[in-house]
Amino acid sequence: MLRNLLLYFVIACLIFTFGGCSDTDTNSKTESMDKTDSTPVDSLVIVLAGQEGKSVFEITEQEHELDYIPSIAGNFIQAIDSIEISSKYGWLFSVNDSMGGVASDKYITKDGDVIKWHYRKF
Question: Per the confidence metrics, is the pTM higher than 0.85?
Fold first, then answer.
């Protein structure tokens, strides 16, 4: 009787242990794949044409209302056309499909460049 009870206890522990690990592993693989395989999604994209010798900031300011914070590193965009950054979304720019590595007022464009402002979830 004691042997049977011990056997049932061991089987129950094994089912609980492996069942719990299986669910956890599946969930973490799914979350991991979602993070690895997901591409940032833009909720809004503004497209502008580059102009010889003008910065991304200057070109954007010609056609859109900007709220920004000036700093030594460059202008930090707070809002474009009243669409403000938040804890989850922000404005990033690219030129010719390459993300700008500097502030928008520091990136000087050429004729033919394609500027895109991406309102993107972080």
Answer: no
